[in-house]
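Q: A reviewer asked whether we had any structural model of the full assembly, not just the individual parts. We don't, so I'm hoping you can provide one. Inputs are below.
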Amino acid sequence: MTGARYYPGIGVTLDSLPYTEPVERNQQTETRHPLVEQADVTAARAGDRAAFGRLYARFLPMVHGLLLARVPYADVDDLAQEVFLQALRKLASLRDTAAFGGWLATIARNRAHDFFRSSHAQDELPETLAAKTGKPDAEAIAALAAIRRLPGAYRETLILRLVEGMSGPEIAARTGLTPGSVRVNLHRGMTQLREILGKG
Amino acid sequence: MTNMHDDYLWEPQKTSTAPDADIARLEKLLGQFRAPEASERPLPESAYIHVMPRKLSLAGWRTPVAIAAAAAVIIAAAWITLRWQGNPVDSWRVASLEGSPRIGLNAVGVTQALRSGQTLETDSTSRARIDVGEIGEVEVGPNSRVRLLEAHRQDGSLALDQGTIQALIWAPPRRFSVQTSSAVAVDLGCRYTLHVDPNGEGWMRVTIGWVAFQRNDHESFVPVGAMCLIHPGSGPGTPFYEDSPKSFQEELTSFDRMKSKPPDGAYPYISHSEFLQLVLEHARPRDAITLWHLLSRTEGNDRAHVYNRLAEFIPPPKGVTREGIIAGDPHMRDLWWDALGLRDIEWWREWKRDFPSK
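A: Here is a predicted structure for the entire assembly that you could use as a starting point for your response.
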């Protein structure tokens, strides 16, 4: 707003009024009111399929990205569904509905960890990519492999950003990380990724 | 790495400059590994079988039916009074505050006229201000689309198709309204923020004064410090104070959003009524305004429970009986509103208001 005008009707100047940011959790791209998401968690916990379906649609990219940061690509889709099935079964134990994203992310990370403890644990990324996509783009596989060489925190945030197309604020809102942490992870991860790709 | 590139990495939709070439190339390359749409890979039906939700030891529920209300008459009266006022000027002035807001295909300069029927659009990096005749102003946030429906010096109306507006109106009540796909926000002398997503979800927060939010049989009177959500298809949610307990807000939102009819299948379901019980349990005396709105959003035993809880906070005034409230007597409901200390109901509805001469 420009100019400090006095409005007799309310007895204040416009500039003296506190500006109310439209969204509290994430002021940039995440415009959905947190209560709507939390209400979906509450309703899903109460047995509302449609509400859980909305959560599935909203959080699938995050779960997919977190798994892709850790397990072979060919297994990611199936594991993502397993993560949501596990979440559905455990939903009653979630006390803070606002923490759903972070809670789901933990389930996804644990599921990836379990995957590698199981008998079919291997990390043959190019081959498994080929098995799923049929015509893998060699350059894309190399780029994904480079990201997967980064430390875990950088790997996750870069995959959510570059593969899943989420913005920094969206990553923070979905995963429960602070925006500051996500920004640092993105910046440092990207710097390291440039170095790896530059050497390659 | 430059700040510009950091900005693109952080929030590509908000960066007006050219993207970092390396990042853009990686996005394109890696996009082929992106998650499928949820609709392409839905959860199996069997996922919902044998999943038991949290059990609540609450009374049984019954299926709610549609609420028959007389509010349509009120809305019609409001529209008649809104249309009655003001000399037509057919346009309001728009100023660009940031970036390049557009009216149709034309970028808004320092100032420009927005005529009735025209649309003002902002992208992710632009904002604009609309001077609402002589009675106020509206700041249009990024990624918004606003249509001017009617413009006069002393009144008028906008339609918010999507995005965020912040309105400050210093005219007498009911001179300015904003239509959304789900409800009409009628200004009662206030400052408020209204947001609508492309899918029709949204919210309204009142920071000064009061706003009436209406759609057919739903009316929500929202005072300063309160807000209400907008639910596609069902209009304004039940208003609540922002300082109310988190559990209360969540349960109220669940109550508003849940389908009245339980889904079929083996997946158990907690009903409207059970969420209502939780709302009532967590309500504070200050939340009487929310409970009053619930009187017209419930029926039968549910309404009786709301009556009992509201009566604990605000004793029903003379002329209000339990039987009358449960039967849905609108006059008794209005009498009870007057006892809340938030101005009397006729001020909110303006049934008998005399407009000042212009």
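A: Points you may want to mention in the reply: The two ends of chain B are 60 Å apart (CA to CA). Chain B touches chain A through 76 residues (CB under 8 Å).
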